[in-house]
Specification:
This protein is mostly helical and about 210 residues long. It has 2 domains: about 120 residues, Arc Repressor Mutant, subunit A (Orthogonal Bundle), CATH 1.10.10; about 80 residues, no CATH class. It has 9 helices and 3 strands. It starts with 11 loop residues before the first helix and ends in a 23-residue tail after the last helix.
Length: about 210
């Protein structure tokens, strides 16, 4: 069901105070509310015109004031920043079948059903999956996306312990600090641990 932008953020000052990523989330949910509505900015088939969208924000129909009054030009500039962000992140894509610059909400955008879903996407970007070791990513990433950070941290450390025990040939009952101390035992104390990098200066050993 269609919801005007001001139903999400009623006050222009509050809207303009949002970071571009935050405003992009609001804008995406607003654009999704057009689905199934036939109008000047969005057609039945989901096409969105950037220019017509702005015109609708300015006019809101015959005889009506702009949605955000005399601050509408500033709001429009902020909305275009958010629109560009949505394009760059692949939430809005050009429709190649159209000669004019019409956009559709992408598959990624369609999966976002609420501002909470969009915030989850933003949080996921804080921890790019490709930067994680595959073994850790498989166990940790789903919990991280759900916001279960304590669980994600616990699972990550557990996977590290499992790998250290396997590589170092340690028994299953050796865990935590004792495991790491034995695995990375410095040369200066005794025989180095099996995972100690003897090429590093002694001061940099555990």
């Amino acid at each position: 069901m269609y919801r005007p932008l001001s139903s999400f953020v009623p006050n222009a000052a509050d809207l303009l105070a949002l970071e571009v990523e935050e405003l992009a989330g609001v804008l995406l949910i607003h654009l999704k509310s057009y689905e199934g509505v036939s109008g000047n900015s969005v057609h039945q088939n989901g096409l969105i015109s950037e220019k017509n969208f702005l015109d609708a924000q300015e006019q809101r129909g015959h005889g009506q004031q702009p949605e955000y009054g005399n601050r509408q030009p500033q709001v429009n500039s902020a909305l275009m920043e958010a629109w560009s962000w949505l394009e760059r992140e692949g939430f809005l894509i050009r429709d190649p079948r159209q000669p004019a610059p019409w956009f559709v909400i992408s598959r990624r955008g369609q999966r976002v059903a609420s501002r909470g879903d969009f915030e989850a996407y933003q949080k996921a970007n804080l921890l790019p999956k490709e930067q994680l070791h595959p073994l850790i990513a498989a166990k940790v990433y789903p919990a991280f996306l759900r916001g279960e950070y304590d669980t994600a941290i616990f699972q990550a450390f557990r996977e590290v312990e499992v790998s250290v025990r396997a590589v170092g040939g340690f028994p299953d009952d050796l865990v935590g600090v004792n495991l790491m101390r034995d695995a990375f035992r410095p040369i200066k104390n005794s025989t180095p641990g099996p995972l100690t990098d003897t090429q590093l200066p002694v001061a940099e050993h555990l």
